[in-house]
Amino acid sequence: MATTRRRTQSRSARRPDAVAAAHAPQRPLDLLAALRDMTLIRLFEQEAERQYKRARIGGYCHLAIGQEAATVGAVAALQPQDKLLTSYRSHGFALARGTSPQAVMAELFGREDGCAAGRGGSMHLLDPDRGYLGGWGIVAGQLPIATGVALAGVKRGEKMAVLCELGDGAVNMGAWHEALNLAAVWRLPVVFAVFNNGYGMGTTVDQASAEPEIHKRAAAFRMPGERVDGQDVEAVHAAADALLQRAREDRQPAVLEVMTYRLRGHSVADAGTAYRTKDEVEEWASKRDPLALATQKLLAAGVAEGELDAVAREAQEAVDAAVAFADASPQPSVDTLAEFVYGDPRTAEQFARMAPGAPAGEAQVIAQLQQAA
Amino acid sequence: MASETAAGVETMTYREALRLAMREELERDPSVFLMGEEIGVFQGSYKVTAGLFDDFGPERVMETPISEEGFVGAAVGAAMSGMRPVAEIMTLNFILVAMDQVVNHAAKVRYMFGGQVGVPLVIRTPNGAGNQLTAQHSQSFEGWFANVPGLKVVAPATPADARGLLKAAIRDDDPVLVVENLQLYKAKGEVDTSVDGEVPIGLARVARAGTDLTLVAHSFAVTRCLHVAEQLQDEHGISAEVVDLRSLRPLDMETVAASVAKTNRALCVEEGWASYGVTAEVASRISTACFDDLDAPVGRVGMAEVPMPYAKSLEDAALPHEAKILSAALEVCGA
């Protein structure tokens, strides 16, 4: 699939030279490093699928097998000061941003050492130290929040950008409209990366969207909208890099539509066959697998097969270590059930007294606090 | 405008007290900023933010499009990033389109991310009824929000509390909904501006001392109960104590229980629908905590269980007016 780019009227578009300069990638993608990340994510998710079927992972488990180039290409374009927010199909994002596979697997296992201390699970991974402000479980709910993260960056005068990933199913929510409108009228540095894998659960993009070419909907907000081949990690990286750079420098929000495909169902509980043919899935698996495409490019560039074997071996070792770590990590103690509802531990004590049948005591606690202060 | 009555004590309206709190916090903490519809050059729909735009400028007093889900969500994101946004929802009725951001997002962030990120967000908004604004603009939903762990809900009844609770809300590290009341904006009261005046969230107040009956209320219902307490005293010789809850979440049942232990009778009053409401919660807790103290079943008064009608006669009939409170109080007292 050719990379197509469509620009709408914008401040930068009226200055052609500036646009050309802004679109030069700041740094080329290290394809071997990208393959390393994609391989880790692929093997990690295959392992998560096995562990889910063994009932060691609960809840929902949304895999993104087949979408690794989209994830890695986009995340590789982030700079350390940038922020990332995603939907609930999020394992790959945490791993690509550098969160340890152990912490992610422990979270899927619901253990104390998980990256959200076992409170979030698959849909709510987080790594604030790396600017990953969460996987969010309500479709399109993260979009307005991403605008607010960018707003805070602007208010503090930081030269940063926010990458907000969403699925194609999110673009028909009101939050999409409100978030993009606010980003545009306030000139916020947010790149909305729509991972278009063709299906919102089992509903096709054509069925759900009056304008199924989602990047074109950016025009309604006078922001650039581009479409890129999401199976080509270098293409995704180049497009995301350019848009993120413009976001940082010109406070220009944008829509990046990343055309990709999930080889599995909506979640592990969905076989993914009721609404699409086996031939279609097989076609993508055999001809458009992003790992195979990247591998071919590396071989053509003269990288030795042995080096690629080492990539797979090291990724498998990391995944095995992640499972061992998660398995050894304890379940959170039930004594900690009510921790983290509120920030101030003294407030937690107040709220503990709100349990039905616990009649009184807030005033007493506050009096103690005031004495202590 | 505010007028000085004693050293450091000024008489001002509830509206002015809220404005003073925002002014003081904007001056104190550069991470505080306001956002909302028409809070800038328009000076706020109910003029609560009047003058702040002129003094602090568009970066600190940020006007938003009509886009509650969008800007409340943006406030959540900004709060997660270390800012302290104070978002004004023009009236509580409009918060429903932002409910997902308030309940599913703001309230959950700290817990579901394992305590690593908080949301120091304030949402302030007027509610209430009584101006023939009909079904979609005459509602009191604070009980809904008080149901949600992760949120805090305060509902000041006086100018001093309006200032003090809003300040506490802005300084709190978690999301706080500050429920104001349309009928109270013009109410006047004394505010000691010589002190910081923060009122801790989670502390009720005995608004009037009494010995025969405890009236439990919050926000504008406190005003109604104080009038009823005077009538009870003057016309029936009944001494009613009025407890102003101030905070609905957390709820200070200790103050309520101490009062009921003294009076042995309780009537809970609210402006909202009573079914599944604030009075349902408080009455249940009184029944548990004060079972041995009670001389009569706990009474409750709320708004009629209808959407608010337009006609004045019907609106009056729907509201928890003082006559209704009085009659319920007499029933609890067996008088």
TrEMBL record, chain A:
Q: Where is the composition biased (Basic residues)?
A: 1-13
Q: Which GO terms describe its biological process?
A: pyruvate decarboxylation to acetyl-CoA
The Swiss-Prot or TrEMBL record lists the needed cofactor(s) as:
thiamine diphosphate
Among its keywords, does the record have Kinase? no
Q: What are the alphabetically sorted keywords of the record?
A: Oxidoreductase, Thiamine pyrophosphate
| Stretches assigned to the Dehydrogenase E1 component domain | 37-334
Q: What's an example of a GO molecular-function annotation for this chain?
A: magnesium ion binding
Domain of life the protein comes from: Bacteria
**Record-listed E.C. numbers:** 1.1.1.-
Query: Region Disordered: which residues?
Result: 1-21
PANTHER family linked: PYRUVATE DEHYDROGENASE E1 COMPONENT SUBUNIT ALPHA (PTHR11516:SF60), PYRUVATE DEHYDROGENASE E1 COMPONENT, ALPHA SUBUNIT BACTERIAL AND ORGANELLAR (PTHR11516)
Q: What is this protein called?
A: Acetoin:2,6-dichlorophenolindophenol oxidoreductase subunit alpha
The organism that produces this protein has a lineage beginning with:
Bacteria, Bacillati, Actinomycetota, Thermoleophilia, Solirubrobacterales
Automatic annotation (TrEMBL), chain B:
Entry keyword Glycosyltransferase: no
Domain of life per record: Bacteria
User: Which positions fall inside the Transketolase-like pyrimidine-binding domain?
Assistant: 12-187
For this UniProt record, the keywords arranged alphabetically read as follows:
Oxidoreductase, Thiamine pyrophosphate
Q: Is this entry keyworded Oxidoreductase?
A: yes
Into which EC class is this enzyme placed? Answer: oxidoreductase
Matching entries from CDD domains are given as: TPP_PYR_E1-PDHc-beta_like (cd07036)
One GO molecular function term of this record is: magnesium ion binding
Enzyme Commission (EC) number: 1.2.4.4
Q: Which cofactor does it need?
A: thiamine diphosphate
Q: Which Pfam families match?
A: Transket_pyr, Transketolase_C
Which Gene3D superfamilies does this UniProt record tie to the protein?
3.40.50.920, 3.40.50.970
Name-wise, this protein is: 2-oxoisovalerate dehydrogenase subunit beta
Q: Which gene encodes it?
A: bfmBAB_5
